[in-house]
User: Fold these one by one.
Assistant:
Number 1:
Amino acid sequence: MFQKILIANRGEIALRVLRACKELGIQTVVVHSTADSDAMHVRLADESVCIGPPPSRESYLNIHQIVAACEITGADAVHPGYGFLSENAKFADILAAHNITFIGPSGDHIRIMGDKIEAKRTAKRLGIPVVPGSDGAITEEKEAKRVAAEIGYPVIIKASAGGGGRGMKVARTEADLEVALQTAKSEAGAAFGDDAVYIEKYLEKPRHIELQVFGDGSGHGVHFGERDCSLQRRHQKVWEEANSPALNAEERARIGGICAKAIADLGYSGAGTIEFLYENGEFYFIEMNTRLQVEHPVTEAITGIDLVHEQIRVASGGGLSIRQEDIKFNGHAIECRINAEDPRTFTPSPGTITHFHTPGGLGIRVDSGVYSGYRIPPYYDSLIGKLIVHGRNRVECMMRLRRALDEFVVDGIKTTLPLFRDLVGNPDIANGDYDIHWLEKYLAKED
Ligand code: ADP
């Protein structure tokens, strides 16, 4: 087991990982920018190292500073959290070259999945169902027209290097295709420095369903069921559930089995998420994330398994603590992402939190790095906390969520809490009857 882990992240996820390390008796080091000296995880860590000024590229994305912090403090492993360097293959390779363990998959696996065209090709080879579309990158309009005619309109053009929902364009008819192709290419080039794009069938009413998987790096793979993340705004998840209100146990076991086998065949190590669109009973792979996800606590709530403990165990060579047959799904869980944003316009609302009171009681978990008097720096993303609620079934979970939202107090800044208070009373949400476009339509109606 590791002696000392360096946490290369900030906010609620840094605290989340720190808690897991403390439970396992591992010493913790956190790195932080000058904007985060007062952060909760900095206060709670055994050691902290200031690695630079507020802009992420000079601090949280500064590989040299982070490696230097490992060497100064003698950390033998790094947990990257999510975002920042968590899916940076070069970072994983550099750590390996310094004999520091990256708590995550190999640089090569990160590289494959970071290139969406390559990821899709790999998924297909491993027997995972994919969205019908082009086999590789599309450069010529003629080729785009041929593929689109074959799979049928509407189609979506997506950036191979894409992420965060950027660089996607829908073409409903052949007449739209040329503009969509050119805009997607130039947007991808500008945003990611790589203008490779590909085409796939645009699904009109899918749900976003993702499978939590784990590999032990020596040919074993397990799945932890799915999360339904269909409630999205601008392709960003807002509310997540486990299990999905749309799947039955048989479908779960089938798609879970396919994913676990794929992970085993790939020789994958650590936590991963295989993301699908789900429509009319069919799954279509869209991408794989090679890290811990923001929404992992809903899976922890229904399985009772600490996924960060498992990540640390696997990375240290200790293997998984569980087998597939030990993973049982108990009840229902929902996570609400609480952002420091205006609940209608979603414009960021940094500032000082004058009062912060979190709900408690059975089935309630709040993962947050903020506190009363904390000043939210304007440099980073606006997630200030996550409310995770667990119940014996979805009805109980929703009742408890409504109560918890009533108790939650965040004063001094605007947050997305009022949006969740509205959603919890909505009949479609109560029935679990929504797809990936539901929230956008709902917000447009409310305006
Ligand atoms: P990113 O890495 O940018 O998040 P994804 O491939 O994961 O990109 O897609 C993000 C979101 O975009 C999906 O959750 C879904 O809402 C939408 N999307 C992606 N591909 C399709 C598709 N083929 N049809 C319909 N919607 C899609």
Number 2:
Amino acid sequence: MKLCVALDLTSKEDNIALAKKLKSEDIWLKVGLRSFIRDGKELLEALKAINPSFKIFLDLKIYDIPNTMADAAESVASLGVDMFNVHASSGKKAMSMVMERVNSLPNPPIVLAVTALTSFDEASFSSIYNASIAQKAMDFAKDTYESGMHGVVCSVYESQLIKSHTHASFLTLTPGIRPFGESSDDQERVADLQTAKAQKSDFIVVGRPIYHSVDPLSVVKKIIENI
Ligand code: C5P
């Protein structure tokens, strides 16, 4: 299991300062929409300059027509990121085209698909997909697997089940982790490290428990010792 630290601070400088504090560690850094739209490629380069061994997950959740997604995937891969994601609801044709394009490149990154956004409640989800979240998330995970993608972004509580319906090596990346039972903040369904381990999560995403701590490095070290 790998730790992926969410760089969700409000400025480029703050995100870089956090990465500098964590530069000794074997971790992944998650760069999301806000930071990437604002700070772009320069931020990614600055992070790699701090420690070339940092792995970068560009969390842009791409969703468009198949050809546009494949083009975008190629552009993302050319940034040198180690992992990025798309929406599984873009469909198997789009995801297969993304993988065909990515696999034709020299150093293909890991590609994941988001199953169901965890912000949905059952009623709002069903008004779009006419299905329960659990059912549709599993259908999306199977589509993702059959499209040749490497894994999914999912709730920690679905990780094991998704692997049992696809393949044990199919990756799961799970946000909403409160490693040692910290405050859940605005997350609805949080899980601690033990649960993430039991659920065989491959990547845990942790944001606030690290960057709101007075000593982010010691929290990261403690997480790594326990995974
Ligand atoms: O601060 P916290 O640990 O809750 O941050 C979790 C990170 O994972 C945030 O960047 C959030 O946007 C992201 N995320 C999430 N739930 C999802 C998908 C992404 O919390 N379903």
